[in-house]
Amino acid sequence: MIIDQKKIDEAIETVIGYGGEHIRNCVQCGACSAVCPGVKAGFPLLCRSLIRQLLNGQLEEIIEDSSSWACQSCSRCTEICPRGVRPQEVVFAFRRYQANQLAFSTSSITSQMNLFQTGHAVFVDPKEARKKVGLPEEPPTSAYDEAAQKEIQTLINNSPMGELGLF
After folding, report:
1. Are 108 and 65 in contact (CB under 8 A)?
2. What is the pTM of this model?
3. Ramachandran quadrant class, 17 (left: phi over 0; alpha: psi -120 to 50; beta: rest)
4. Domains in the chain, start-ordered, CATH in brackets?
5. How do residues 60-101 score in pLDDT, each as one tens digit?
């Protein structure tokens, strides 16, 4: 369902204001989606698809989709984008838009709790896999660093996300 142009413009301006400044530079080449682990894992609303639907005003269809919370911040999309769109920043800006619209699905709540607790939206304990290949069981990540976790929690608690009362 297409909503009125005023609502579309307002949503795009909000996403731009939240950090997706270059969203209008997108030419839908698909380079970002081609390298996105989330897209390859089957999340339908990342990179090119999210940008297309935002620019086309399909907010009602995407506002509650939890795919945006699956972004792992790998920056592959941003590195490859020939137009400087910075798709990862658009995804994160859209997350802020969703949060301010109180549009959370139960699966996105889980990823938010994971982010708050470990510093990773999606977290699978890698100890066994790392042990099998001879690596230290605990990788150098916030998931195993209590001080880093506290810093992340402080940042979240003092952001618009903290104001939602999820944590």
Report:
1. no
2. 0.65
3. alpha
4. 5-104 (1.10.1060.10)
5. 788 888 888 888 888 999 999 999 999 999 999 998 888 777
